[in-house]
Amino acid sequence: MFDTLYEWFWWDRIWLPVNLTWADLEDRDGRVYAKSSHLYVTVPYAFAFLLIRYLFERWIATPLAVSVGIKQKVHLKAEDNPILEAYYTTKYRNPAQADIDGLSKKSTLSVRQVERWFRRRRSQDRPGVLKKFREASWRFVFYLFAFIGGIVALYDKEWFYDTREVWTGFPKQSMLESQYWYYILEMSFYGSLLFSVAFDVKRKDFKEQIIHHLATLVLLSFSWCVNYIRIGTLVMLVHDASDVLLESAKLFNYAKWEKTCQTLFVLFAIVFMVTRLIIFPFWLIHCTWVYPVHHYPAFFGYYFFNVMLVVLLCLHIFWAYLILCMIRKFMIGSLTRDERSDNEEEEEEDSSPTEDEAEEHKLGNGLAVDEKEDTNGCFGCLSPPENICRSKTVY
């Protein structure tokens, strides 16, 4: 049965144009083609990226953060209480007053003590500026090198300047070494992001990020297997262009270099709109939707590929909306936080300092930062579409 499912899944008529078979993509006559078996290496590479990230954040990003005045915040730990912990993890992090009264009776604590426990428990889970800085530093470094590597790999290719050349000779287009490493490293990086998503900073678009990472990996894998590598490298490059500016804007925001942060964010917004909402749909999706049918009849893989690209475009539109909201607030001078931040956290940060916060300040012996630190600076927890790029969906 497994063999039958395997043969059906890899049926030529599903993934390849009519009159073409997988045998046509076997290495011969000096031509080398991408193979699905090559993708296995991305799994150990993804874990290697996680290890490199850990070392980078510990030995490079953390000292860099300290050098610009970012310190680790010390939080008061909530006392062990099974009743309150069960409510916190299974129901709601910020209970209503009626629930607080009920929990007070069950736990034999006063209402004030229950409120303090939930405040401290939420504070434990809230990521600090140092964590955000390290995360943004790692992504900035990768996207910068990926973008430079993409330019080096594509600047002398015909399809970089004329998208019609993407389909010239398809599918018998030999894979280049630069294309191999560009793909493998990008897929490994996105795999590492998927593995670490549970530990990274979470915001409102958490679900969209998961969808994005999965769509990216599916499209990268599909384009690799059916030799859509030329268009794939173009899509990755387009997405990397804005990622670099986004992560750099975050870094300067956390360091409170407000003018630099504002300038980079404006540049990011411009590049994002141009690359994701103009070049991506009107050049790249047009290239995959219109030109292929000039060479062969439409088939399932053709529709699958383009539908996935449209899914990615919808995510771009969603993130563009968040960016425009931030720009609107920026223009009227009321932007103090990331539009993707949780409402619950927003309410806490907007409230007046509590006695717990004063205690934390003392406990930290000078190391703790003010609870509102995340919302100071140019864009508060600047981080529009976190994936606003992580979009590389290849395509």
Protein model, in words:
Helix content is 62%, strand content 0%. The radius of gyration is 24 Å and the shape is globular. It has helices at residues 2-9, 12-15, 42-67, 82-90, 97-107, 111-125, 129-154, 177-196, 206-225, 229-254, 258-289, 300-331, 343-350, 355-363. The chain is mostly helical and 395 residues long. It contains 14 helices and no strands. Helix 3 (42-67) packs across helix 8 (177-196) and helix 7 (129-154) runs antiparallel to helix 8. Mean pLDDT is 81; it is low at 341-354, 357-377 and 380-395.
How far the N terminus sits from the C terminus, by CA atoms, comes to 31 Å
Helix and strand sequence: HHHHHHHHHHHHHH
Give the helix/strand class.
Answer: mainly alpha
| Uncertain regions spanning at least 5 consecutive residues | 341-354, 357-377, 380-395
By DSSP (H or I, 4+ residues per run), the number of helices equals: 14
Give the strand content: under 5%
Number of strands: 0
Mean of residue pLDDT?
81
| Outline type | globular
Specify Rg, calculated over alpha carbons.
24 Å
Largest sheet: none
The share of residues in helices is 55-70%
